[in-house]
Design brief:
The protein contains 14 helices and 2 strands, in the order ββαααααααααααααα. The chain is mainly alpha-helical and about 375 residues long. The longest helix has about 35 residues.
Length: about 375
């Protein structure tokens, strides 16, 4: 079951580690840098969010046939909320990385950050499904489905997701394209806030407008989370005394709780019962943690390993669901549950490190060189 698909379709990648006014550095994690130092805490939050989503998928009763992990299964039922945290981090970091950067540089950084790992993981997932006995054109993915998934636009093209975790990428891509409209003429505090207000109003109108295009563009279910992330960055940049971002944050939180009922329903596995109150508490804690980041409460966190983990979180998210669950279902009758679970996690973490180190980083360098090449003038 996918992580809460949007009502439009299967309505997530992650922000990168850009520095203000400088090109993104391939392989760096989401934290980036802002005046005053590197925000490695955002790398740590990405690791936490990715781990929550992974254990949500790996401990579910519908995979094992029973409650195999006790307390971890109970906690894992709410692990899909890591996606909500991802979206807030994305709003924060994309606003931060686009500031002082021309539109072309902003768009290139998105392609360089998302593309290499995603393309490799799509092909690797297709190979695993093929080896698992699901050939193209049979019960498994067709060749057209694989090729369409490489575009990252499989949702608007109405092609099935090769891995159900990919649904979040469509939400991310829509946010990037919308934010490009603001980045086009250069970011300022007022322009960014106006963008957030306009997006919020569009999200309020979309559900009852009868206009599918507006609903698709506004993404009303998840837009409040991106807006919250942007507001947290503005507070960090401009100082805590600016009142308008706080007001918009309050409205965004109210909109998030309204849609949480639908999101909880989408993520309730048959036989389970999720608590809306618990989900709201987790989302609220995520907001409070991001507020602490905005208020510079975590600036002393400067552990380098967080940057390594943050860089790995993107390939880990892309890899873990389809491939990991395939492995679990293949072996769960023959291997003790905890041994199999920890082994699967170790395999996914190792694979993510290898992809980030030997695929994503060198491919990003080559892609950057190609995209930034300028033909000689006649």
């Amino acid at each position: 079951m996918p992580l809460h698909p949007s009502p439009s379709a299967f309505a997530r990648p992650q922000p990168d580690g850009d520095h203000l006014g400088k090109p993104a550095i391939p392989g760096q994690a989401a934290a980036g840098a802002v005046p005053g130092g590197r925000l490695r805490v955002l790398d740590g939050l990405r690791v936490l969010a990715a781990a929550a989503v992974l254990f949500h998928h790996y401990t579910r009763r519908d995979i094992w046939g029973y409650d195999a992990f006790g307390w971890l299964t109970a906690v894992g039922r709410y692990g899909w909320l890591g996606v909500e945290l991802f979206f807030m981090i994305s709003g924060f970091v994309i606003c931060m990385s686009a500031w002082g950067r021309p539109l072309g540089g902003y768009l290139r950084s998105r392609v360089i950050r998302l593309g290499p790992a995603y393309w490799f993981c799509v092909l690797l997932t297709a190979v695993v499904l093929l080896v698992d006995g699901k050939p193209f054109g049979g019960a498994g993915p067709g060749l057209s489905q694989v090729l369409t998934n490489l575009t990252m636009f499989q949702t608007p093209l109405k092609s099935a997701q090769l891995d159900m975790s990919y649904w979040t990428l469509w939400s991310e891509v829509r946010f990037y394209l919308l934010f490009a409209l603001v980045a086009w003429t250069g970011l300022t505090y007022r322009k960014v806030l106006n963008f957030c207000w306009i997006w919020t109003v569009a999200s309020l109108l979309a559900p009852t407008s009868g206009l599918p295009l507006l609903d698709t563009v506004a993404n009303p279910v998840y837009s409040p989370l991106f807006v919250s992330g942007i507001c947290f960055y503005l507070i960090r940049r401009e100082g805590p005394r600016v009142g308008e971002p706080w007001a918009l944050l309050g409205l965004s939180w109210l909109l998030t709780q309204r849609w949480l009922n639908d999101i909880v329903a989408w993520n309730t596995v048959k036989g389970d019962r999720l608590s809306w109150e618990t989900c709201l508490a987790v989302v609220t804690v995520c907001h409070l943690v991001m507020a602490a980041v905005a208020l510079r409460r975590f600036d002393r966190i400067d552990w380098r390993w967080l940057s390594v983990g943050g860089a790995m979180s993107y390939p880990l998210y892309l890899l873990h669901q389809q491939i990991g669950i395939t492995l679990l279902r293949q072996w769960h009758r023959d291997v003790e549950p905890w041994t199999l679970l920890l082994s699967a996690v170790a395999v996914m973490v190792a694979a993510s490190w290898l992809i980030q180190r030997f695929v994503e980083r060198p491919a990003a360098r080559l892609l950057r060189r190609g995209l930034e090449h300028r033909p000689a003038r006649a």
